[in-house]
Amino acid sequence: MQKDNGSASCAANPILQSRRGSPRQRRWAPKVKTGCKTCRARHIKCDEAKPACKKCISAGKRCDGYVYNAAQKTPISKTHQVPCDALVTHHMLPNHQNPMSLCFTEIKPSRPPSNELTSATGSLVYILNVIDPAYSVLSFGECLKDYPQRMEHNKVLTAASKVLTASVFSFYTGSISSKPLVPYGEALRVLISSVGAVHGKTQIVDTMCAIGILLASHVCQPPTITRGLKLKFVQNVRGSNRREFEVLLRGLVYFLDMLGDEELDNAFDNEVVSNLRRLVIVSSIMDPTMRFNPRLHYGKKRQSGLVATAPCNVGTARCSQQWHDLIQISSYLEDPISNLDHITTTYQQLSTHLALLEKNATDVFRKVKTSRDSLLSLQYIRQEAGNSGLLTMAMALNMALRIIHPRNSALLEEAVTFVSVVLRAADRVSLFKPLNTALLGNCLCLAWVVAVNPQEKERVRKMLDEHSYIFRGTTWEVLATKFQKRFDSIREWYRWYSLLGQVPSWQQGTKDEDVSACPP
């Protein structure tokens, strides 16, 4: 009986069996899908530490790294169109009358080497696949298609992409979430720690691109949250208040000065720098303390390049203005008397080009309404964004010239024309209500300031109220007040010069004077 008990205990004890030469009966640990190659081969649980797991180090084993599974981390669907209700729930689409449906297109990222990068790339590719004009982040720029391929080489790009995806997902669901808070703080830490180590053209452009992504994440807020404590909470979570927005803009000025007149090598760099230059120039008109390095204007000038304003495949209207001229608009407004020749020349060129660009945008919009092509719609939205930036510059120069030439009727007529162009552009863009509306919002605010008569101001005010979704994190009254203060300072400066008698008599103006006839 004891022998039987001993046999039973021996059979139940795999250690005793292995000591007596019997086959090993010990059960292996359950197989796991994650972990390093060595731990998976040894059938033990891995702590997944990097670059080598602690299990292998403590056991004196060589850690062979981790397996990248692209199928699990980066799902990429084939090119197709999917109805809205098959992709998102009903409450995620506030505008049910939108004729466009959420469309997906294939964007292939480079193969990332780590699980963290894989997850960030997969999330970014998912939102890049959305090409519906109302929800696509591609309205910020077509260059974002190449963004995943550059994330492997720059940690700042990876950190910024996490912020964008978290903010966009919150925008899609329309919910208040604290999820974007963690990646936003992490992205700022990575950005601040890497500023001193940025050198070379590629790193400068990548860092500027990351800042642009953080600026875009400020725009991606649920449009249903408009007031009260909820808005304040969302602003704190996403960093979506104006002060932080302006801090990032000053970071762009710093890196644009660092980039100087370097020649850009590829389409990605050119589009990124072009879009961010336009954004900073418009912001510098509103805020005179945001200044560029003068060497960008008085340097070689050969690499600044043309201002790209027509990214559409249809139409060839372009602006022949050089960036090195537009960059100095804010500094021109600080001393308009001394820079009157530059202001007049730049204003006349912008006025001529904007007439052609507005006609081209109208033609493209007609084709969009006829074809209902999502990709063409995104190209049109990007074109309107470029035109809005140039309109803001032209209206600012118009207002400065009107202060110097208060009796010039031609300037008043041109101001009325500019306001009408802005209202027509806002009416066209309202069909899509895209994410990229920052420049249009600034343009509308300046149009309210520039409007000649109360009737025009009322028209602009109604349009601003209808497009309140543009001003996420601020209000149009705040931005309009900043423009108004800028022109009030010009009036005070000009009045002071007049009292001192330092303004030539020909600058006082006559009823029908011509700005182009003024001597330099």
Characterize the structure shown.
This is Zn(2)-Cys(6) zinc finger domain protein. Residues 35-63 form the Zn(2)-C6 fungal-type domain. Residues 1-20 have a biased composition (Polar residues). Residues 1-29 are annotated as: Disordered. Keywords: DNA-binding, Metal-binding, Nucleus, Transcription, Transcription regulation, Zinc. By secondary structure, this protein is an all-alpha fold. The chain has helices spanning 2-12, 14-19, 37-42, 54-59, 70-73, 84-87, 115-128, 147-150, 155-173, 181-194, 201-219, 228-238, 242-259, 267-286, 295-298, 323-326, 329-334, 340-371, 374-404, 409-429, 438-450, 454-466, 476-499, and strands spanning 80-81, 103-104, 306-307, 319-322. α20 runs parallel beside α22. Mean pLDDT is 74; it is low at 1-20, 68-107, 223-240, 299-317 and 508-520. A two-stranded antiparallel ribbon has the order 1-2. Strands 3-4 form a two-stranded antiparallel sheet. The chain has 23 helices and four strands. The chain folds into three domains: 33-64, Zn(2)-C6 fungal-type DNA-binding domain (CD2-Gal4), CATH 4.10.240.10; 116-226 and 235-290; 299-324 and 338-501, no CATH class. The longest helix is centred in the C-terminal third of the chain and has 32 residues, at 340-371. Helices cover 58% and strands 2% of the residues.
